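Researcher: Here's the sequence for the chain we discussed earlier.
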Amino acid sequence: MNAKTTAGSAANLRLLSKDYIQMAVAQMDLINDAYNRTGIFENDKKYQGYRAVASLYTEACQIVIPADSDIQSVDDLEGKKVCIGEEESGTEQNALQILNAYGLNEKLVDTVNLNYTDAAKKLKSGDVIGPFRSSIGMHIIKLYDVSHSAVTPIKTYDAAHILIKTSIIYSDEAAVAKLKDIASEINKGTITFAQAAKQYSEDPGSAIKGGDLGYAVADIYDPNFARALTQLHVGQMSQPVKSAFGWHLILLKDTRVDRDSLEVFKEKANSIIFEREFNEAVTSWERSLREMAYIHVIDPELVNSGVSLDQDNKGKNTLKPTNDDQGSQQYSENSRLLN
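Model: Thanks. This is the structure I predict for it:
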């Protein structure tokens, strides 16, 4: 099963009727509206051809405000900003129904459609907004402060390249000479880089696009390729560069510092997960070292002072069993567990 996140009930019903999805979760009132073309579906077509397979739970719709707010009733929402949930969601429709029941149309209340991410981006220090639904539940957000170091910006490079491969019969020298000839023609204006890539490049995936590789972080490329790429200025073409795939001419078309994309947050998440798992692995490794450790005192001063962690008074190793929550361990009579 391939689970998808959508805006909500209304979107699910439309997607289900158009066979984009084969099963959906939706609110009962919106199912009825979609089937009979009422409510928000009044000016739409009827969405039919589906049936219910289960009733999951009775849903309560709650209006939540900050604890220190002066709002005492729904009527007090007049003139206030109210988040009514994500567009096309059941939360949005329920919120509008409640507001309309109290005579609070969109002229009297400043309604905003925000999901979790949108809400977080629009908040200012001290703002409180919500409730709204995400895939894991209902949320209220209060922003205390903004840190610009939450994620490390990623620099991406928009590059193009021309690849000439080498072989037993086509040497490095021949590949370099060919690329220099191509570069000379490009610099003279006889041919553009894109035209040369289409004509000469042996990377079929990028050649068809004029050598274009799109925006990407340098780390995804071969180390030599990446090193040469990061040393270029925008608009500059490299000298022939060798990689594990052959020889390249690289053109840097643009750079971009990425702070907000999914890739940036994935990179931050990967870093957090790695650090957490690394710390757990180190702790486990240290614990295993302690459990396997055997300490034998050979320092003369310690021996003369009577310190002995591995022998009793008769010179024989004496192990004393003990039980703890982690299982049975053994240690010598004068030794102790390292914490």
